[in-house]
Write a structure and sequence with these properties.
- The complex is a heterodimer.
- By secondary structure, chain A is of the alpha+beta class.
- Chain A has a domain of 128 residues: 2-Layer Sandwich (Alpha-Beta Plaits).
- Helix content of chain A is 29%, strand content 13%.
- Chain A contains 6 helices and 5 strands.
- Chain A is elongated, with a radius of gyration of 28 Å.
- Chain B is mainly α.
- Chain B has one domain.
- In chain B, strands 1-2 form a two-stranded antiparallel sheet.
- In chain B, strand 1 and strand 2 form a beta hairpin.
- Classes of the chains: A alpha+beta, B mainly alpha.
Chain lengths: 190, 351
């Protein structure tokens, strides 16, 4: 039969030579290979104690950002919810009272802000849509849980620590945030 | 005639049996661990390392899991035989340890104690007899399960073991022609006195023997009776809890015993290489040398156990027709030729 293409590769199937039929030389060869593997470096790491570093553009759980004085940046404009392709974000806006000026940066704020982590696809479009620098994706991921309800993260789960009451925790989160921002900036400039 | 009953001898043998059985169980326990560790290391993984330091408590965790599991006896199975199967496998695996000389004599409380449970003059034949009983464990277990996969695996296992027992026996005949004795102790003492291990006299015989030992223990590349991906676990598919544990454990004990037999018959048993034991006993005392000898035998056993695992993680399983082809058309003729050559050489040397 004529070959349809010129990419046909004819495999020669010769009968085995005496050496091959004796099995043992080849078994010895195979055993030498497996023995050699005993001294190779192992790629496995002891996971919970050791962790691999994330890639610089890793997109993990969201946080809601605060400014330097600890005021929430989010104004509940809803752009993130609009941008979200998975429709994972819901929010309720509220008006800031006069005695709440130390809590919220602008006159409007999110009274309720929820992200369903089971719906979220961690695309980062909310982060890009946000005009107020209020939402960022961090380098952590949602821990396993038993109920679906527990994957709906509310404001207490999402807000980053207050710089006034928990300066260390805030700095830590901020440090990661700054590195993340720098990475995103570098990525955008490319 | 009244048979003299030596209470002390009875006690001494009883203690020896208990020690050997417990040691065999302990080593088998840790062989399961070593198997997983070796598998991990060969495959560039780490192996179990969570339970205890270096994962050393892993076999205990496995054992507790085995015991705690639900014990199921299938409704349509033959209940008695179903229970008998794993017990038979375990008992036959243990019984072989009786004739293996675990060390030289020790002197305790003014008595000379042999570190061998029974020095019978048909030691090798006894091992063969007991080992071939082992096939009943597989056969009965597989048949009593009333499951076609189990039955198929049991038949496969039985025919495999019978085929390879033949080659194993023939390969040993050549060795026995050379040693002229069936007693394990005498074979070891001969090797000690000449200083030449039987392996160097009978390399082909040893090769045939080790291949047959793999087949007898149902180890890869001959693990057809329990071929996981063809027969879903073979003859012990219906077994659960400790009855399954007995089957798995019997396999490891078989491995230990066949390692011990190989070490004894071909690698000098408790002979410490390059050392004259008799001279050493005179200066250090009999007991220390006997202990060292036993440790040497253990080291040899551990080495063979490692070879068992090493081969398992290297070679894929044979196909059934290849297995039979190898057994009947290659192993048996080779063993026969080996036997003929050995016989001819011995005759020629004696002339």
């Amino acid at each position: 039969m004529q070959a349809l293409t010129n990419r046909v590769k004819v495999l020669e199937q010769k009968p085995m030579t005496l050496l091959e039929r004796m099995y043992l030389p080849n078994i010895a060869k195979g055993m030498a290979i497996t023995f050699g593997h005993m001294f190779k470096k192992r790629p496995t790491i002891n996971y919970p104690e050791q962790k691999r570093p994330f890639s610089p553009v890793f997109r993990g759980l969201h946080i809601l950002n605060r400014d330097e004085e600890g005021k929430e940046r989010c104004t509940a404009c809803g752009l993130c919810a609009v941008a979200c392709p998975a429709e994972a974000i819901t929010m309720e806006a509220a008006e800031r009272k006069t005695d709440e000026e130390h809590l919220y940066r602008e006159e409007k704020y999110a009274a309720r802000y929820e992200i369903n982590m089971l719906r979220c696809i961690f695309c980062g479009l909310c982060e890009e849509a946000c005009p107020k620098d209020a939402i960022y994706l961090t380098e952590t991921f949602a821990p396993a849980n038993y109920t679906r309800q527990s994957f709906i993260y509310g404001k207490p789960d999402l807000l980053i620590p207050d710089p006034k009451t928990q300066p260390d925790a805030f700095a830590q989160a901020q440090g990661k945030l700054e590195a993340h921002k720098a990475n995103m900036k570098a990525k955008n400039e490319q | 005639m009244i048979l003299a009953f030596d209470t002390l001898l009875f006690l001494e043998k009883f203690i020896l049996i208990v020690v050997v059985i417990l040691a065999a169980l302990g080593i088998a326990l840790y062989t399961t661990f070593a198997e997983r560790k070796v598998a991990g290391i060969i495959q560039d993984r780490r192996g179990p390392n969570r339970a205890g330091p270096f994962g050393l408590l892993q076999p205990l965790a496995d054992g507790i899991k085995m015991i705690m599991k639900e014990e199921i006896i299938p409704l349509t199975s033959n209940k008695w035989l179903f229970i008998l199967g794993p017990n038979l496998a375990m008992i036959t695996a243990m019984m072989t340890s009786a004739v293996i000389p675990w060390g030289n004599k020790v002197e305790l409380f003014g008595r000379v104690i042999d570190l061998q449970i029974a020095d019978i003059n048909i030691g090798v034949l006894y091992i063969f007899g007991v080992v071939s009983m082992g096939v009943y464990g597989i056969m009965i277990g597989g048949w009593a399960s009333n499951n076609k996969f189990s039955l198929l695996a049991a038949i496969r296992g039985a025919s495999q073991i019978i085929s390879y027992e033949l080659a194993m026996g023939l390969s040993l005949i050549a060795l026995l022609m050379y040693t002229g004795s069936l007693s394990m102790k005498t074979i070891v003492e001969q090797q000690m006195s000449t200083g030449v291990w039987n392996f160097f006299v009978q390399p082909l015989g040893f090769l045939l023997f080790i291949v047959c030992a793999f087949a007898e223990c149902n180890r890869t590349p001959f693990d057809l009776p329990e071929a996981e991906n063809e027969l879903n676990f073979g003859y012990h598919q219906e077994y659960s809890s400790m009855k399954l544990g007995f089957y798995l454990f019997a396999e490891y004990i078989n491995m230990i015993i066949s390692s011990a037999v190989m070490a004894t018959l071909y690698f000098g048993g408790y002979d410490i290489p390059f050392v004259n034991e008799a001279a050493l006993s005179a200066s250090w005392g009999v007991n220390i040398v006997a202990v060292l000898g036993t440790l040497t035998l253990l080291a040899k056993i551990v080495f063979f156990l490692f070879v068992f695992m090493w081969v398992r993680w290297t070679i894929p399983r044979f196909r059934y027709d290849q297995l039979m082809d190898l057994g009947w058309k290659k192993m048996i003729p080779l063993a026969l030729i080996n036997m003929l050559i050995t016989g001819a050489v011995i005759l020629w040397l004696n002339k």
